[in-house]
Design brief:
99 residues, alpha+beta, five-stranded antiparallel β-sheet, 27% helix, elongated
């Protein structure tokens, strides 16, 4: 898993006119940058996920139907989902390099 030193929560709060906020969590995992974006709404928190490698976006996921209790739950779910995506991607690349 991602070492604790790589988990950085920037206190960036984007508060639009309707009063809802969004928080962004940045992490590094196996040379990939992970961004978990959680947006607060009346029903709960919604999560979006971006994965970048060498500055290029390789995956972008939005889970509009899934709601989370708070930012911590959305962050953990996003990180676990990102780890699975990165591991699958690297496993596919490893299989393609074998003779």
């Amino acid at each position: 898993m991602c070492p604790r030193a790589d988990l950085r929560l920037y206190g960036r709060r984007l508060i639009p006119k309707d009063g809802f906020q969004s928080l962004i969590h940045h992490a590094q995992y196996r040379s990939h940058e992970i961004r978990v974006i959680a947006v607060d709404s009346e029903q709960g928190w919604r999560m979006q996920l971006q994965i970048l490698h060498l500055g290029k976006r390789i995956a972008r996921h939005a889970h509009p139907d899934q709601l989370y209790l708070d930012f911590s739950h959305a962050r953990i779910a996003g990180l676990l989902h990102a780890y699975e995506i990165v591991d699958r991607r690297l496993a596919r690349q490893g299989d393609g390099q074998r003779p």
